[in-house]
Write a structure and sequence with these properties.
Blueprint (H helix, E strand, L loop, with lengths): L4 E6 L4 H13 L7 E5 L4 H4 L7 E5 H4 L2 H13 L5 H14 L9 H15 L4 E4 L4 E3 L9 E2 L2 E6 L1 E5 L5 H12 L7 E5 L6 E4 H11 L3 H6 L8 H12 L5 E4 L6 E4 L2 H5 L1 H10 L5 E4 L15 H9 L11
Parallel strand pairs: 1-2, 1-4, 2-3, 7-11, 12-13
Antiparallel strand pairs: 4-10, 5-13, 6-7, 8-9
Length: about 325
């Protein structure tokens, strides 16, 4: 088994987020830890200055199946000049009527495919997936991703009820359908659908075999936002890989503090300080939602995060739990 590594899919729009993520990794002594970063092929040179320490840059062309990379490039050409409003209308039209089939190769879906494909393509036995908007706010020990040579499976069990359906229920239902698992009205599901998530390469390979040789085409044939890479992996792990993985239920080591909306971001100074100071949190995600008043950029909170780090917050937190 090779050394556990971080994995981050990114692109030019998240360059500021990724730059801040790397600063927090360095703050906690993780600058030289293996960190595989997969960026859109045309963005490689923009990220090249950040290829320091443990960072290894990869182009999507090196990780994605050729047909998926070609579809991504075609979508990029067709959508050139689209603003956010037009892009949203196109995705909505595809979801409802099947129009503009090429939009299924747009950024978010391709990042989902990338997360699933990269560990296998890059031969990474154990990966800690970090989206660009996830920062480190406490000591992280990559050795804790395995227990007795088994990769951990982080679980946050929750009940999902169809009486109050939401996006998590939709993602879970899709995962059950793809994996031929009966889907009941009420399900005890792994509700962990954001990073960090720990992927096991052997489990991912088995998942791909379950879906079929063209698993990526099966996923890309689905309407946008109807499936989740993490719901799919978690569902497969729960039902088919229990004996191969080490379950970790609600482990404080993997607990995440989240700034998810405008109200929370208006309290960013207080909440970021609390996340770094609280030993129960090791990760901080500052989400960006298109429905919010403004999407956050990495530079928006860089000064706050750097000020908190300059005070040494988080460095004295325990290394293990």
């Amino acid at each position: 088994m090779n050394e556990p590594a971080f994995l981050t899919p990114s692109w030019r729009g998240d360059l500021g987020h990724f730059r801040l993520q790397r600063k927090t990794l360095a703050h906690f002594g993780l600058d030289d830890s293996p960190h595989h970063v997969v960026v859109q092929t045309e963005d490689m040179e923009l990220f090249r200055p950040l290829e320091t320490g443990g960072v290894v840059l990869h182009a999507t062309a090196d990780v994605l199946p050729p047909s998926v990379e070609a579809g991504r490039q075609d979508c990029l050409r067709r959508s050139a000049g689209d603003n956010r409003h037009i892009a949203r209308l196109r995705r909505s039209a595809n979801k409802r009527f099947g129009w503009f089939p090429w939009v299924r190769y747009y950024g978010w879906q391709i990042q989902q495919i990338t997360k699933l494909a990269a560990p296998v393509a890059l031969d990474l036995d154990v990966t800690v997936v970090l989206d660009s908007d996830t920062l480190i706010c406490g000591p992280v020990n990559l050795a804790q991703t395995t227990v007795d040579q088994q990769t951990i499976h982080i679980r946050s069990p929750q009940i999902i009820n169809t009486e109050t359906p939401g996006i998590s229920h939709r993602w879970l239902a899709t995962a059950h359908r793809l994996l031929d698992i009966p889907h009941h009205d009420t399900n005890l599901s792994n509700g962990r659908l954001g990073t960090p998530v720990v992927f096991d390469k052997a489990t991912l390979s088995a998942l791909m075999r379950k879906l079929g040789p063209h698993w990526y085409d099966k996923l890309l044939s689905l309407p946008p936002a109807s499936w989740s890479e993490f719901a799919l992996y978690n569902t497969y792990a729960e039902h088919f890989a229990r004996d191969q993985l080490a379950p970790m239920d609600n482990s404080p080591f993997w607990r995440v503090s989240v700034l998810a909306d405008d109200d929370q971001r208006h309290q960013a100074t207080t909440l970021i300080r609390q996340a770094f100071a609280d030993p129960d949190y090791r990760f901080l995600t500052i989400q960006s939602d298109a429905r919010d008043q403004a999407k956050w950029k990495g530079d928006d909170f860089s000064a706050i995060v750097e000020d908190v780090m300059s005070q040494g917050l988080g460095l004295t937190n325990p290394q293990s739990v």
